[in-house]
């Protein structure tokens, strides 16, 4: 598994996600947003969390127009894997890799806390190490994590099984109280139609070591690398 982690001006989780990928056995290349091409043999493009361009205009709106996003769209169109975490989810939506958009949290506050998530399906490249319906405990840290889309898109996401994760309580119940940002249907992450692009607001890369609070994030990187070994 060869992963290209993109750095935008203001990215701050690029090192964390590279560490999580390496821990799972991936080879990691760091790629600058202004580059036009991905390294030869890239299997996975990672759009990391952070505050690209200081969150000006709308989170991810400027980064979504970076040169490397042309190569990333071409990679996705060929069926290549793309993972957008938090600001990376916002960038993926702004770049047209995923439908819908992330807007200000319903309470208009930056939310930074532990959060339970329900894994909607485990037959994808990103979730095979989890059980279907498993409740995992991860971190969230965002100001614009409120996922919205038009009713037709929402019906398609639900109908085609493209919701990847939902916010839930410790028992796995999807409730308004367990929803930290007002996202439609408690959506915390979605897949593209081909399920080769995943965007999610929570940070699995920050829960990969028991020493810092938990390991429920590891499954995502083990799923990705388990499907394809480092060259
Ligand atoms: N942790 C992140 O990636 C934050 C994303 C974005 N800056 C927000 O606040 O919504």
UniProtKB/TrEMBL annotation:
Molecular functions (GO terms): glutaminase activity; phosphoribosylformylglycinamidine synthase activity
Keywords: ATP-binding, Cytoplasm, Glutamine amidotransferase, Hydrolase, Ligase, Nucleotide-binding, Purine biosynthesis
General function of this protein: Part of the phosphoribosylformylglycinamidine synthase complex involved in the purines biosynthetic pathway. Catalyzes the ATP-dependent conversion of formylglycinamide ribonucleotide (FGAR) and glutamine to yield formylglycinamidine ribonucleotide (FGAM) and glutamate. The FGAM synthase complex is composed of three subunits. PurQ produces an ammonia molecule by converting glutamine to glutamate. PurL transfers the ammonia molecule to FGAR to form FGAM in an ATP-dependent manner.
Active-site residues, record numbering mapped to chain: 86 (nucleophile), 203, 205
Highest taxon, organism lineage: Bacteria
Name under which the protein is recorded: Phosphoribosylformylglycinamidine synthase subunit PurQ
Gene: purQ
Assembly mode: Part of the FGAM synthase complex composed of 1 PurL, 1 PurQ and 2 PurS subunits.
Pathway participation: Purine metabolism; IMP biosynthesis via de novo pathway; 5-amino-1-(5-phospho-D-ribosyl)imidazole from N(2)-formyl-N(1)-(5-phospho-D-ribosyl)glycinamide: step 1/2
Subcellular location(s) per record: Cytoplasm
EC number(s) given by UniProt: 6.3.5.3, 3.5.1.2
Catalytic reactions of this protein: L-glutamine + H2O = L-glutamate + NH4(+); N(2)-formyl-N(1)-(5-phospho-beta-D-ribosyl)glycinamide + L-glutamine + ATP + H2O = 2-formamido-N(1)-(5-O-phospho-beta-D-ribosyl)acetamidine + L-glutamate + ADP + phosphate + H(+)
Main location: cytoplasm
């Amino acid at each position: 598994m060869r992963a290209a982690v993109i750095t935008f001006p203001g990215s701050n989780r690029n090192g964390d996600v590279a560490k999580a990928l390496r821990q799972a056995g991936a080879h990691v290349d760091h790629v600058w947003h202004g580059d036009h091409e991905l390294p030869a043999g890239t299997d996975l493009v990672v759009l990391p969390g952070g505050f690209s361009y200081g969150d000006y205009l709308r989170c991810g709106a400027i980064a979504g127009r970076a040169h490397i996003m042309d190569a990333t769209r071409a990679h996705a169109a060929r069926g290549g894997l793309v993972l957008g975490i938090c600001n990376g989810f916002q960038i993926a939506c702004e770049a047209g890799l995923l439908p819908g958009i992330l807007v200000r949290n319903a309470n208009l506050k930056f939310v930074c806390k532990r959060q339970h998530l329900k894994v909607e399906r485990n037959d994808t490249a990103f979730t095979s190490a989890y059980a279907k319906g498993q409740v995992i405990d991860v971190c969230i840290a965002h100001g614009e994590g409120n996922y919205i889309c038009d009713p037709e898109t929402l019906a398609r996401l639900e109908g085609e099984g493209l919701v990847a994760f939902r916010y839930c309580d410790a028992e796995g119940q999807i409730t308004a109280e367990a929803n930290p940002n007002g996202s439609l249907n408690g959506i915390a992450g979605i897949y593209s139609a081909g399920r080769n692009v995943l965007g999610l607001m929570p940070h699995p890369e920050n829960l990969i070591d028991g020493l810092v609070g938990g390991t429920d994030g590891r499954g995502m990187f083990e799923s990705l690398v388990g499907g394809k070994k480092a060259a």
